Amino acid sequence: MGTVGLALPWGDRISSAACEGGRRVEPPGIAAGQTSEDQSLPEDRALAAACLAGDLQAYERLYQAQGARMRNLARNLLGSATDAEDAVQETFLKVQRRITTFRGQSTLVTWTFRILVNTCHDLRRSRARRKEQTQDDADRTAPVPEPRAPGAHPTLRMALERALATLTRHQREVFLLYEVEGFRHAEIAALLEISETASKNTLFQAKKNLRSMLEPLGGAEAGGA
Predict the structure, then answer these.
(1) Taking the CB of residue 135, how many other CB atoms lie within 10 A of it?
(2) Which of 135, 163, 191 is the endpoint of a domain?
(3) Which of 14, 82, 117, 166 has the smallest number of Cβ neighbours within 10 A?
(4) What pTM, to 2 d.p., does this model score?
(5) Which domain holds residue 87?
(6) Does residue 189 form part of some domain?
(7) Does residue 171 share a domain with residue 125?
(8) pLDDT tens per residue, range 185-217
């Protein structure tokens, strides 16, 4: 399995405290007891109403507000900037085609990200089928990776990418959505159509698996320092 290919400023979102189950700190400017979702609800509802009314500028506002974040998530799920861009463009086409099916049971943003995740799944399956069809040619033309220098340790970023790639699909999605993209468990539950308890349990197992793979590496690096 290839690496996830993370394209995120990890230091800005993930800390050692978070990996140990600590509470994530909300971005600056959010009052105590209030969440980023609470502040965005009126704007989200207005944007949804405008999209339902056929306002093309509303779709443009949605893209401007969420496009970069969507590309970021798609890049992490697909491991390719090109595929990520394709996934985002396809998602917005689907949003426009399916907007009449939006019932407001979740926010418009959550609904849009759900379409994005499903689109990424479709692209991964399509890519896997293409890979099977061209595997023989790929084997003949694939470059031989250069060996690492003796005793060299991979960087934390590379190690994290590899560790994430070993998680199950659901573990990787929940981890990225919660720790990287900042979604709450209630939002993840709506996005992935699972329960909040399942989201929490999946995140716990993902962190546990990541720690088991990364802690030995940390010890080895410390010993060689």
Answers:
(1) 11
(2) 135
(3) 82
(4) 0.67
(5) 36-135
(6) yes
(7) no
(8) 999 999 999 999 999 999 999 999 998 888 766
